[in-house]
Amino acid sequence: MFFVGCKKDSPKAPEAATLVAPAKNSECTPLQSDNGTSSVVRFNWLASDHTETYELQVTNLETGTVHNKITSNTVETLSLSKGAAFSWVVISSNSKTNKTASSGSWFFYNPGTETSYVPFPAEILNPEPGATVFRDINNEVTLNWSGADLDDDVVQYDVYFSTENPPEELLASVNGNIEARSVSVEHDTVYYWRVVTTDSEGNTSDSGIVDFRCH
CATH number of the domain that 65 lies in? Predict the structure, then answer.
């Protein structure tokens, strides 16, 4: 006697949502003012496949306070402090799998009465956090980042690079129109780096520490 069985398909993992608004590296337009210190901001993203719920995570870049909201919608609102910079990200999930997917992380500014803006933290582009990379023929790796400031007055990037965490050694201070730096590296070594952005008013922001391994 023969038995024929059907193989059960594994549940499909959710895909990453695409962020829409507030736009990346922008000043948002609040829906309304709650009071003298906060206003309501509208968030919008595109639906992702194999997703039942989304977790909206909005982080105050100065205080580190995280605002969370879980929803099945692709539009949500939050009351946020005026005159502050934020990052936002959307996590996609479904009940059939414990896998999740994260959208990109975007920065925005919720306007207040300020006349000068702190630059957004530099976005680390390459090497990506946790990546393993190959050295070039000169035993070097190129560090790439992207900076933004609503005043468009970034004057300097300070690049810190080390095998120690946190990296305290200043690799270079470069002009605000330069967003890359080559550095000598060794085989099978983990490196840590971060970028501090400074604008013409002396305001600064920190990219946070990222690491990569050389192969």
Answer: 2.60.40.10
Of residues 91, 126, 119, the one with CA closest to residue 105: 91
Do 92 and 133 belong together in one domain? no
Tell me, yes or no, whether 3 lies in a domain. no
pTM: 0.87
Q: Do 154 and 210 have their domain in common?
A: yes
Q: Please, what sign has the CA dihedral across residues 91, 92, 94, 98? A: negative
Rounded Cα–Cα distance for residues 62 and 87 (Å): 10
59-111: pLDDT as tens digits: 999 999 999 999 999 999 999 999 999 999 999 999 999 999 999 999 999 99
> Do 102 and 168 lie in a common domain?
no
Determine the pLDDT at residue 22. 97
